[in-house]
Design brief:
With 368 residues, the protein is of the alpha+beta class. Helices cover 33% and strands 22% of the residues.
C-alpha cells in the first residue's frame, strides 16, 4: 500500500480504481477461486478504490477475512432469488458511493486499462466527465516483479504442491490407464495435501502428444514404454507454483535417455547462470546453446511466477531486463521430436548471490 501511495503521488493521481485480480490481491490480500470462470452473479469479484483511504468493493457472497490493512469492505448485492439479479447496477452503485465520499474534485484517476470492463469505464467517464484516466497497469506489474518475503513464502507453498503432484505421477502412471485417470489421482494428492480445492493449469499428455509440448489430459490410453509429460501450475491462495517433468512408463530408448540427460543439463546450466545483474536473455541463450543441435524448442526458456503464472522477467532471446534478488523464475528447456518430446522445469528464487531452487522434486526419467 505504501508503494501504491508513492506511485499515486508521483503521477499526481487523485484516486485509483484497480480491477485486475493480481492487483486486488497484491494490495488487499483478497483472492477468489477463479477456476469456474466468471460468475453470472458478479460483474467483478472485487475492485479496489482509493485515494487517501481505500475501499474494497466486492460481491456479498465473496466476503472473506482480509489482512489488517485498514481497507473498508463495501459489499454489493450479487445473488438474489426474490427479484432479478442486477449485479452490474449493484456494483456500479457501490463504486459511485465510494467516489462520492472523496469530498473534492477528482481530476486524475489511475486505472488498469487492460482489466477495466467497458461498462465500468463508461460509468466512470459519465460521473467524472472532466477527469483524466491514467493507465497504471504497467507500473503495478513492474512493482510486483521483485517479491516480498511473505510472497516468497506463499510461492514456496504452491511449489510444494507441484512437487507433490510430480511425485504422484511417478507413483501412479501405468500402461493401460488414461491421461485423465492419472490426472485425477495426481490432483487428489495435491488437494488432499492443501486441504482445499486448488485451481491449476495442467499439461498432462502421453505418447505422441508429448511432441507438441503439452495439452489438457484426455481419454487417451497410456501405452507401454510411452513418455508422459506433466507440467503442473497450481495456484494456492492467489500465488502460483510451477514444475514440469517427463517420464517413461516402462523402458526408454537410448535416444530418449540421451535427450533427457541433455535437457536436464540445459536446465542445470540455466539455474547456475542466474544471479543478480545477469540479463534475462543470457539465461535463455545458455540453455538454447546446449540444446541447439536438437533444434529450437519453440517457446520461452522461462518466465516469472507470482500472482500471475507468467509474468516478468520473461526468459526469452530479446529481454535485456537485468535479474534482481527476489525475482521468482520458472525455467523450462525442452526438446521436441516428431513423435515425442521432453520438457523439464524448476522454479527458482533469485538470491543475493545466485539462486535457490524452490521445487525440490528430482527429475527422474527411468522405469516407473
Amino acid at each position: 500500500m505504501e508503494r501504491l501511495l508513492k506511485l499515486k503521488k508521483n503521477k499526481g493521481i487523485d484516486i485509483v480504481v484497480l480491477t485486475s485480480p493480481a492487483a486486488v490481491k497484491y494490495f488487499s490480500g483478497y483472492s477468489f477461486n477463479f477456476e469456474t470462470g466468471p460468475s453470472p452473479f458478479h460483474l467483478l469479484p472485487a475492485a479496489l478504490i482509493g485515494g487517501d483511504t481505500f475501499s474494497l468493493v466486492l460481491a456479498d457472497n465473496e466476503m472473506q477475512p482480509l489482512f489488517d490493512t485498514g481497507i473498508t469492505v463495501r459489499p454489493y448485492q450479487s445473488y438474489v432469488f426474490e427479484k432479478p439479479c442486477e449485479s452490474t447496477g449493484q456494483f456500479l452503485g457501490r463504486v459511485h458511493d465510494v467516489l462520492g465520499q472523496w469530498g473534492r474534485k477528482i481530476e486524475r484517476v489511475g486505472i488498469e486499462q487492460d482489466s477495466l470492463p467497458f461498462v465500468v469505464a463508461q460509468s466512470l467517464t459519465g460521473c467524472l466527465p472532466d477527469a483524466e484516466f491514467i493507465d497504471i497497469g504497467p507500473d503495478i506489474s513492474q512493482m510486483r516483479v521483485v517479491k516480498d518475503n511473505d510472497e516468497i513464502a506463499a510461492i514456496r507453498r504452491a511449489a510444494e504442491l507441484a512437487d507433490i503432484g510430480q511425485s504422484a505421477v511417478l507413483k501412479y502412471a501405468r500402461p493401460g490407464m488414461s491421461e485423465l485417470e492419472l490426472f485425477a489421482k495426481v490432483r487428489l494428492e495435491m488437494e488432499s495435501a492443501a486441504g482445499t480445492r486448488v485451481p491449476m493449469m495442467t499439461d498432462l499428455v502421453s505418447g505422441v502428444r508429448t511432441a507438441t509440448g503439452g495439452g489438457n489430459p484426455s481419454n487417451r490410453i497410456i501405452g507401454e514404454n510411452e513418455l508422459v509429460l506433466c507440467d503442473l501450475t497450481p495456484c494456492l491462495n492467489g500465488y502460483w507454483g510451477d514444475s514440469c517433468n517427463t517420464i517413461v512408463v516402462g523402458t526408454a530408448t537410448a535416444e530418449q535417455k540421451r535427450i533427457f540427460t541433455l535437457v536436464r543439463s540445459a536446465l542445470r546450466a540455466g539455474i547456475d547462470t542466474i544471479r543478480p545483474g545477469i540479463p534475462a536473455k543470457t539465461v535463455d541463450a545458455v540453455m538454447r546453446k546446449i540444446l541447439a543441435p536438437e533444434g529450437d524448442f519453440g517457446h520461452h526458456g522461462g518466465h516469472g511466477v507470482g500472482l500471475v503464472y507468467h509474468e516478468e522477467p520473461r526468459i526469452v532471446p530479446y529481454n535485456d531486463r537485468v535479474l534482481e534478488a527476489g525475482m521468482v523464475i520458472a525455467l523450462e528447456p525442452a526438446v521436441y521430436k516428431s513423435d515425442w518430446g521432453i520438457r523439464l522445469e524448476h522454479l527458482v528464487l533469485v538470491t543475493t548471490d545466485g539462486t535457490e531452487v524452490l521445487t525440490k522434486f528430482d527429475h527422474v526419467f527411468g522405469q516407473v
